[in-house]
């Protein structure tokens, strides 16, 4: 008998390219039929066939409080009663800007947008406008949304002038995007030595969550800060994923490094479309209507979305919120690592706050190349066995996972028990 999930996927593929509205949802990496979800509550999800799951994706980060949190829902409902959109300033936006600036003090001024992609795209344009330079530096395996300049990768390890990693990106534009390996301090120093005066900005995920989880090492972030300061380039921390998640003040608070610009998304909207970019006042003053760098949005600062974000940000400020989230995540990851070790399976794992990485490799990787050497087939097998057992992990060996404050000790125990069972029969 075909399941409703399968029926929906077949029908969707006729009308929606690949059956999905964002590629990773199609399960291309792990194979099989994507799960169509109908309902979520706290740490739990239910699909169209009525099967229940413990959720470790959390809509790719925003659901830090779990699904359908009553206070977030009430805030959305209240805002919706007063109109869904004005396209004009509101007191809510001011409240959001004040809160962001308080929690992330490097963001002296803030502009709201509707996605992480818009935030990073705008921050790059602003950095180019502010410096009058064209080149940007990003790191292999970091994802900063799908703006043309950012869809570029390099040949492994070595610096090349950018080759677009998507069709439709003009090579002339991609040529302005330089790509180096993450955590490669010497390569960054060498590049700035050669062409520091041409580089508008570095954009970096301060903890990478888009090639599985990769942690900065050997003072990498400090080196980026120093090189940008020395050569007059703008340092952009893309905290779309890490913001309000690895610590209340984001990765910049965790590592004690002050970027010039920061981009935010995901948690800041609590599950509705909100993004933000902000930073040094002198740089932000280059934005229209004050300055020559154009940026705009019909739904920017949308009152309903901002209300969901404000309710979320209010709740995550409770004492010990992030310490508890870190502890829950750590317990889950260590449980899986022990489970694999007991069964003699090559496996490693780590977490930074509520973000985690699981790898079918002997130790935690520190670069794109190292991640690529992990056993993808083993991950795919594990993914499907966990899915069958009602544990919903990210459907790719190259994505980080997320734990919410709604995950209970029972959820963690059930997750580890499922892994015990799978690894015992590995
Ligand atoms: N930057 C980072 C670090 C991200 O993880 C993402 C999305 N996963 C983006 C930017 C793009 O955000 P969005 O999907 O909201 O456009």
TrEMBL record:
It holds the Pfam family Aminotran_3. The modification N6-(pyridoxal phosphate)lysine is found at residue 266. GO terms for biological process: protoporphyrinogen IX biosynthetic process. Its cofactor is pyridoxal 5'-phosphate. It is an enzyme of class 5 (isomerase). Gene3D superfamilies: Aspartate Aminotransferase, domain 1, Type I PLP-dependent aspartate aminotransferase-like (Major domain). GO terms for molecular function: glutamate-1-semialdehyde 2,1-aminomutase activity; pyridoxal phosphate binding; transaminase activity. It catalyses: (S)-4-amino-5-oxopentanoate = 5-aminolevulinate. Pathway: Porphyrin-containing compound metabolism; protoporphyrin-IX biosynthesis; 5-aminolevulinate from L-glutamyl-tRNA(Glu): step 2/2. It is found in: Cytoplasm. Its EC number is 5.4.3.8. Keywords: Cytoplasm, Isomerase, Porphyrin biosynthesis, Pyridoxal phosphate. The keyword Nucleotide-binding does not apply. InterPro entries: 4pyrrol_synth_GluAld_NH2Trfase, Aminotrans_3, Aminotrans_3_PPA_site, PyrdxlP-dep_Trfase, PyrdxlP-dep_Trfase_major, PyrdxlP-dep_Trfase_small. GO terms for cellular component: cytoplasm. Homodimer. PANTHER family: GLUTAMATE-1-SEMIALDEHYDE 2,1-AMINOMUTASE, GLUTAMATE-1-SEMIALDEHYDE 2,1-AMINOMUTASE 1, CHLOROPLASTIC-RELATED. HAMAP family: HemL_aminotrans_3. Belongs to the class-III pyridoxal-phosphate-dependent aminotransferase family. HemL subfamily. This is Glutamate-1-semialdehyde 2,1-aminomutase. It comes from Pseudomethylobacillus aquaticus. The gene is hemL.
């Amino acid at each position: 008998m075909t399941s409703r999930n399968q029926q929906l996927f077949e029908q969707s593929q006729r009308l929606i390219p690949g059956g999905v509205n964002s590629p990773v949802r199609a399960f291309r990496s792990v194979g099989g039929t994507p799960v169509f979800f109908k309902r979520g509550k706290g740490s739990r999800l239910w699909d169209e066939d009525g099967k229940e799951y413990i959720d470790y994706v959390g809509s790719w980060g925003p659901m830090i409080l779990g699904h359908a949190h009553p206070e977030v829902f009430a805030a959305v409902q209240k805002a919706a009663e007063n109109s869904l959109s004005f396209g004009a300033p509101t007191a809510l936006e001011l409240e959001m800007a004040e809160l962001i600036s308080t929690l992330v003090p490097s963001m002296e001024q803030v502009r709201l947008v509707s996605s992480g992609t818009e935030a990073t795209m705008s921050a790059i344009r602003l950095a180019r406008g502010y410096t009058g330079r064209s080149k940007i530096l990003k790191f292999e395996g970091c994802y900063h949304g799908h703006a043309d300049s950012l869809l570029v990768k390099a040949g492994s390890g070595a610096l090349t002038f950018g080759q677009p990693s998507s069709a439709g990106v003009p090579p002339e534009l991609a040529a302005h995007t330089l790509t180096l390996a993450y955590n490669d301090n010497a390569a960054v120093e060498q590049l700035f030595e050669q062409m520091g005066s041409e580089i508008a900005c570095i954009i970096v995920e301060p903890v990478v969550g888009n090639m599985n989880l990769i942690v900065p090492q050997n003072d990498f972030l400090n080196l980026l800060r120093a090189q940008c300061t020395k050569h007059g380039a703008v340092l952009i921390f893309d905290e779309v994923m890490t913001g309000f998640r690895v610590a209340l003040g984001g990765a910049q608070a965790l590592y004690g490094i002050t970027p010039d610009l920061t981009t935010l998304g995901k948690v800041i909207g609590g599950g509705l479309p909100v993004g933000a970019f902000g930073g040094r006042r002198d740089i932000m003053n280059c934005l229209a209507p004050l300055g020559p760098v154009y940026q705009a949005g019909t739904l920017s600062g949308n009152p309903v979305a901002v209300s969901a974000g404000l309710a979320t940000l209010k709740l995550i400020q409770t004492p010990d919120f992030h310490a508890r989230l870190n502890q829950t995540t750590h317990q889950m990851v260590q449980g899986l690592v022990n489970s694999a070790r007991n069964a003699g399976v090559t496996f490693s794992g780590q977490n930074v706050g509520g973000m985690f990485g699981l790898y079918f490799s002997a130790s935690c990787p520190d670069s794109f190349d190292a991640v690529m050497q992990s056993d993808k087939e083993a991950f795919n097998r594990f993914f499907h066995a966990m899915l069958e057992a009602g544990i919903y992990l990210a459907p790719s060996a190259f994505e980080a996972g997320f734990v919410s404050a709604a995950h209970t000790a029972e959820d963690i125990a059930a997750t580890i028990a499922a892994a015990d069972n799978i690894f015992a029969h590995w």
